[in-house]
């Protein structure tokens, strides 16, 4: 399923001691997050935790010099918080609120 919204990419460099990082925006859901360290995907609840807001916490501090990348899709709000059926237009899926 494809949802329309703004894609966000946050980057950081590990220092070997810091475990808490602040995201530039609220991803809205843990399932919206893709987290990697030097290109290696990290597992939610094993390697990192996110529960709400803009705080991402690693279980162990990323080693010094390691590049972290956090990608997430901020979905657009729907009126009343209800998403209606998906329809296909030219092979693309569009969600309509109802």
- What is the number of E strands? 9
Mean pLDDT reading:
81
Low-confidence stretches: 82-98
Oligomerization state: single chain
Strands of the widest sheet, in order across it, are: 1-7-3-4
N-to-C series of helices and strands: EEEEEEEEE
Helix content class: under 10%
Coarse structural class: mainly beta
Silhouette: globular
Question: Major sheet: size, sense and barrel closure?
Answer: 4 strands, antiparallel
Q: How far is the N terminus from the C terminus?
A: 17 Å
Would you give an account of this structure?
- It is built from no helices and 9 strands.
- Strand 5 (48-49) and strand 6 form a beta hairpin.
- Strands 1-7-3-4 form a 4-stranded antiparallel beta sheet, with no helix packed on it.
- It is mostly beta strands and 98 residues long.
- The chain is globular, with a radius of gyration of 16 Å.
């Amino acid at each position: 399923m494809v949802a329309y919204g703004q894609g966000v990419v946050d980057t950081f460099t590990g220092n070997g001691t810091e475990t808490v990082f602040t995201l530039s925006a609220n991803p809205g859901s843990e399932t919206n997050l893709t987290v990697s360290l030097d290109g290696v995907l990290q597992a939610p609840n094993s390697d990192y935790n996110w529960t709400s807001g803009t705080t991402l916490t690693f279980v162990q501090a990323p080693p010094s010099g390691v590049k972290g990348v956090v990608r997430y899709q901020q979905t657009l709000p729907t009126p009343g918080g209800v998403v209606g059926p998906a329809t296909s237009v030219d092979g693309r899926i569009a969600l309509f609120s109802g």
